[in-house]
Amino acid sequence: MTTSCDHSQHAMSDLFENIELVIFDFDGVIADSEVISLATLRTALQSFGIDLTLDDTRKMFLGKSLETIEAYVRANGTQDRQDFGSFWETTLFDHFRADLKPMPMVTHFLERLDRVGLKYCIASSGTLKRIGVALDAMKLRQRFQHVFSAQQVARGKPEPDLFLHAARELGVRPQSCLVIEDSPFGVRAAKAAGMRCAGFTGGSHVSDVETEHGDLLRRNGAEVIWSTYEDLFPHILAK
Fold first, then answer.
1. In CA terms, which of 73, 93, 94, 122 is 20 to 30 Å from 131?
2. pLDDT tens digit string along 149-181?
3. Cα separation of 106 and 113, whole Å?
């Protein structure tokens, strides 16, 4: 059994110091969606003539925007059709509505953020439609008053545009933001934006490579690595 966190208690205790806004990635951080997403993406890619292993699909596309994936399909696929996004999302959304669950204890963590008056939002590479379908499936739409998508900026992750847009819209300086991410592209985007970043490894999609994935997030700039929201409870209460 892997340990729930591999960070120092000192780093965790300082994590929320001078933080005014927590920016959550969505897939693999709020929604335990990446197993569904990567499996359906792999199948959709095969329909367009691109045959990747599940591990390669994860390495290449975890945290990337639909626009980036569509560009890859146009450059490498064998089909002439231009509707890859809608082709994939039709199946993906059906699976979301049937099977999607939030990350364990995430709602309790959000309640604690509310209790201490700390702002939070979603900033995801996913489309607004995808995020909305997923939030509805998990009955979490009312929890998030502020949702931002890579659709709203010129450049997606690993560029900093999305996180900077979220901070600007909520009137918070980048240095006062904490980003929670599960992908190396997202971690790099957070660091490029001048924000603090914690790496999350609690998603089902990395359960077989949790330690390796945590090391990858750390190499890309994550300050701490953790795998359950319970790890953060005492630190947010101490803010």
1. 73
2. 999 999 999 999 999 999 999 999 999 999 999
3. 11
Overall pTM > 0.90:
no
- CA-nearest of 35, 33, 40 to 135 is 33
What is the C-alpha separation between 16 and 176, in angstroms, rounded?
9
Tokens 């999302």 sit at which residue? 89
* Residues β-bridged to residue 21: 119, 177
Strand, helix or coil at 198?
strand
Q: Which DSSP state fits 103?
A: P
Instruction: Report the DSSP pairing between strands 21-24 and 224-226.
Output: unpaired
Domains of the chain: 9-32+101-237 (3.40.50.1000), 35-99 (1.10.150)
- Using the structure block, give the residue that is written with the tokens 């925007």: 65
- For residue 239, pLDDT over 70 is answered with no
**Length of the chain as a residue count:** 239
Residue at 96: amino acid letter? F
